[in-house]
Structures are given as structure tokens and as C-alpha cells.
Write a structure and sequence with these properties.
The protein is of the alpha/beta class. It folds into two domains: 2-148 and 284-332, Alpha-Beta Complex (Quinone Oxidoreductase, Chain A, domain 1); 151-280, Rossmann fold (3-Layer(aba) Sandwich). 26% of the residues lie in helices and 27% in strands. Strand 16, helix 11 and strand 17 form a beta-alpha-beta unit. Helix 4 runs parallel beside helix 5.
């Protein structure tokens, strides 16, 4: 039996829950959970904001732990290996996307907390293909958030071949944004943090921003017209997108990784004349996750975390939902 914490209804408190996972699949692994981050996607699923949650619901898709057992066809891991598991827990492994290395775009990919039980537990299972080994230099305490928050902001750097000479702006200095600043700085980019919070300006500079820009200052936005090669938006609220588009250089890109649910209001003319574009992306493939982990280890980058005991999971969720954590909340089993 796997011991976990589950919500029985939308928005309900998490409570002790046990389930029998059945026999381990031939291509699967079972992971002893040591740490598990809490992501805003966990909150969205907990509250059924996307209309796909099944109850009882066990959140948790930022897992760092150790291999407890392996299926008979698994040869890339052995018992005791330190590993991580993110948003996806399996892929079809035979579609064009999978064969191209874009497993994260597989139409049949299964979410770790969508239709199955996640990592707020003592153990979690997943297809071995979706699990990635942790470099020795990364602590398990800090590794979990890299498997969702980290890869979400790292993936577009790889996908769009962002140059180290690029001028990049980051909107929102929170769980995603504080990692984006670190990655982009280490990548070699000139980094600007868009923030309306005075308390976060000094922190943004310490995290890797070369300068900050008050996102509520319309004159500052106008003064930055045609400046940025890339703006990475990590927020999940609607903004004056045209104002940001006008700060992009020719062929510049506004890329969204925050899950904005409202339709975007965009003036096409602000795109057309300078050949600008708007795009979005999900988490990355296992191959890109591996690259991100190696990059983070080499440059000694890691999320800033606040650690709670797994038994205090409801207090941890309350902290994320209604507090101002700096910057990711992690559960320790």
C-alpha cells in the first residue's frame, strides 16, 4: 500500500489516504519520495480549475527521491539511484513527437497528477522514460521544483535558441521568475526583471537581473520601445500585452509560460511591422530536463525553497496560496 495525502473534493483539505497501486509495470519504476515541491498547478488541480481533476486527488509533480524498485524491462536505473519526476509520468514512445525527442508534446502523455496519484506520498510510480537522474551536485531538497518550475522557464531558452547576447525581460518574479533570472543570467543574456513590487527589486538583482523595470510605469515601458529580443511572462493574469509587445525588437518574441486563462487581446499591427511573435510552451522533454539539471549543477543554480514536513501539507498549501513564499514550497517526507 502507498500512503499519501489526498483531497476528497474540490478545494477540500488533504487527509491521509492509502491505495494499492497493483503490480509494477514492466517499463515503470517506483520511487521512494524524499521531497516534493508544491506548484500552483497542484492548487489548480486541487480546486478543479481546469475541470479535469479526479477525486480522491493526490497532488505532487515535483518529486525528488530514490528508486525503490524497477520493472523487468527497465535497465537505465537501479535501486537507490537519486531521481526526479515532473509533470509527465508516461509517454506513448512511438509517435513522431516522441521519436523526435519532444516527449513533452506527445498527445498521449500522461500527467503525474492527471488521472493518477502524485508525489504527496511515501512512494510514486512512473514510466522510466519520464524519470531523470539527479546530478550529484544538486541537493534533493532543492531539485524537485526544477522538474516543473525550472524546466518551464528553461525549455524556451533551448527551443528558440536564445543567444547569450539577447536582451531578455522577465515578467513576474516568483516561483518561475526567480529561476528564469538565474538561468538567463548564467546563459549570458542581459536580463531585465519586470516587477511592480519594490520589495522584490533588490532580490531580482541578487538573483541575476542586471536591471529592473516597474511594470506599472507606462513611461518606462514606452522608453524601452524596440529593446527586448525576448520577454518571458511567468504570470497567470492578463496584462496590457500590446504595451509589452511594443518593447520588443524586430523579430522579438513574447513567450508565455504562465497559464493565463483569459483570451489575449493583441493588436496584430504591433506584431506585423516588426515581425514579432507570441508563443507559449509546456514543460520540457526528459532530454531537455537532463540538460537543465546539468546546466544548473555546473553553474550552481537552484530554487530558493521553504521546507515543510509532509505531515504539515495543508499549512504548506496555505502558505503557497495565501502567503508570499520565497520562492518555492517543498514538502519533506
Amino acid at each position: 500500500m502507498i500512503k499519501a495525502y489526498a483531497a476528497l473534493e474540490a478545494g477540500g483539505p488533504l487527509q491521509p489516504f492509502e491505495y494499492d497501486p497493483g503490480p509494477l509495470g514492466d517499463h515503470d519504476v517506483e520511487i521512494d519520495v524524499d521531497y516534493c515541491g508544491i506548484c500552483h498547478s497542484d492548487l489548480s488541480m486541487l480546486n478543479n480549475e481546469w475541470g479535469i481533476t479526479q477525486y480522491p486527488f493526490v497532488p505532487g509533480h515535483e518529486v525528488a527521491g530514490r528508486i525503490a524498485s524497477v520493472g523487468k524491462h527497465v535497465n537505465q536505473f537501479k535501486v537507490g539511484d537519486r531521481v526526479g519526476l515532473g509533470w509527465h509520468s508516461s509517454y506513448c514512445n512511438h509517435c513522431h513527437s516522441c521519436h523526435s525527442g519532444d516527449h513533452n508534446l506527445c498527445r498521449d502523455a500522461q500527467g503525474t497528477i492527471v488521472g493518477r496519484h502524485g508525489g504527496f506520498a511515501d512512494k510514486v510510480r512512473a514510466q522510466a522514460t519520464s524519470v531523470v537522474a539527479l546530478p550529484d551536485e544538486l541537493s534533493s531538497e532543492q531539485a524537485g521544483p526544477l522538474f516543473c518550475g525550472g524546466i518551464t522557464v528553461f525549455n524556451p531558452i533551448v527551443q528558440y535558441d536564445i543567444k547569450p547576447t539577447a536582451r531578455v525581460g522577465v515578467i513576474g518574479i516568483g516561483g518561475l521568475g526567480h529561476l528564469a533570472l538565474q538561468f538567463l543570467n548564467a546563459w549570458g543574456c542581459e536580463v531585465t526583471a519586470f516587477t511592480s513590487s519594490p520589495s522584490k527589486r533588490d532580490e531580482a538583482l541578487q538573483l541575476g537581473a542586471h536591471r529592473t523595470l516597474d511594470s506599472r510605469d507606462t513611461e518606462a515601458l514606452k522608453a524601452s520601445a524596440g529593446y527586448f529580443d525576448l520577454i518571458l511572462s511567468t504570470v497567470n493574469v492578463s496584462l496590457d500585452w500590446t504595451a509589452y509587445l511594443n518593447t520588443l525588437a524586430a523579430k522579438g518574441r513574447l513567450h508565455l509560460v504562465g497559464a493565463v486563462l483569459e483570451p489575449m487581446k493583441i493588436n496584430v499591427m504591433s506584431l506585423m511591422g516588426a515581425q514579432r511573435s507570441v508563443s507559449s510552451s509546456p514543460v520540457g522533454s526528459p532530454a531537455v530536463i537532463k540538460t537543465m539539471l546539468e546546466f544548473a549543477a555546473r553553474h550552481e543554480l537552484a530554487p530558493q525553497v521553504e521546507v515543510f514536513s509532509m505531515d504539515d501539507v495543508n499549512a504548506a498549501i496555505e502558505r503557497l496560496e495565501h502567503g508570499s513564499p520565497r520562492y518555492r514550497v517543498v514538502l519533506k517526507r
